[in-house]
Amino acid sequence: MTRHEYLEQLRRALRGIDGAEELLAEIDDHFASGAREGRSEAEVASSLGDPRLLGREYRAVAFARHAGGRPGVFTSIRLIAHRLATELPPPVAAVAGGALGLFAGAALIVAGLFALGGLGGATNLVLAPFIAQGASIRLPPLAALFASVGFGLLGVSGCFALLSALVESGRRSGRYLVERVARKGDMPGEGGV
Amino acid sequence: MNIQFKKGVLELCVLSLLARRDYYGYEIADALEGGVAIAEGSVYPLLRRLRDDGLVDTYLKESAEGPPRKYYRITEAGGAACRALAAEWREFVAAVARITEEAHDEA
């Protein structure tokens, strides 16, 4: 494999990883150092090990940093997507992704209904004095106020619970990924080029 | 050799090298050649992890041959980790020596 091919494969394996450009520059320098010692590009490439495995190991290390702290929502989504894409066979990944999407959608709809309920309650309350007697309002204003605030809070906390679950699941995904790599001894070169 | 074991030893070797002077990536891979290194490439993810953990830091230095080169330097925490790992390693080697010698004596 040539220097150019190696770097291209590594670049593909590192897509979306922070520090990717830094590693690519370092590997490029590695080839340059090898060349000064009279080593061919093919020799350096084979002693570096499979670029896809190197990329995978580097990804795992980059994710491990997220796994330590609490990643944001978008990082969580990326971690879950990465795990689905790399851990599961493609058909299972598609089904799992679909199920996750349906679950998230359903949860958002339920949260939305609660929020609407809250909003409706509040609107009724505000409009109550202006609505003619015999209209749909049966609740005394104070009860309506409590009901709307309650529904509103329920909606908000539902959304919050969903987001926390997402973050937690992302954190676990990161840990799992790192542990799996460590367990398998998934190091570049072990079954390398 | 067991891969987990090898990885731990690799970390000890890299920290021990850096405890002596600053190195760039190729030099580290080169120094590890012969026995310890798994693949030269595996040095880089390890260095990234050591940096994320605050055991080493990096700086760029102008080089005559090309673009500025990334050097690794051990931190105070890295020095402490290196000493702890080295102590563990010596204990381990001593225990293995004791067991193998005893087994040898009995044979």
Morphology of chain B: elongated
Largest interface summary: A-B, 32 and 23 residues
Helix run count of chain A:
7
Number of strands of chain A: 0
Amount of beta strand of chain A: under 5%
The general outline of chain A is elongated
Main sheet of chain B, how many strands, which sense, barrel?
3 strands, antiparallel
Which CATH-level-2 architecture of chain B? Answer: Orthogonal Bundle
Low-confidence stretches of chain B: none
Mean pLDDT of chain A: 75
Write structural notes for this entry.
The complex is a heterodimer of chains A (193) and B (107). Chain A is 78% helix and 0% strand. Chain A is an all-alpha fold and 193 residues long. Chain A starts with a helix and ends in a 9-residue tail after the last helix. Chain B has one domain: Winged helix-like DNA-binding domain superfamily/Winged helix DNA-binding domain (Arc Repressor Mutant, subunit A, Orthogonal Bundle). Chain B contains 4 helices and 3 strands, in the order H-E-H-H-E-E-H. Chain B has a 3-stranded antiparallel beta sheet with strand order 1-3-2. The radius of gyration of chain B is 17 Å and the shape is elongated. The model of chain B has no long low-confidence stretch (mean pLDDT 89). The A-B interface holds A 19, 22-23, 25-27, 29-30, 32-34, 36, 47-49, 51, 53-54, 57-58, 60-62, 64-65, 182, 185, 187-190, 192 and B 3-4, 7, 24-27, 29, 38-42, 44-45, 48-49, 52, 65-67, 69-70.
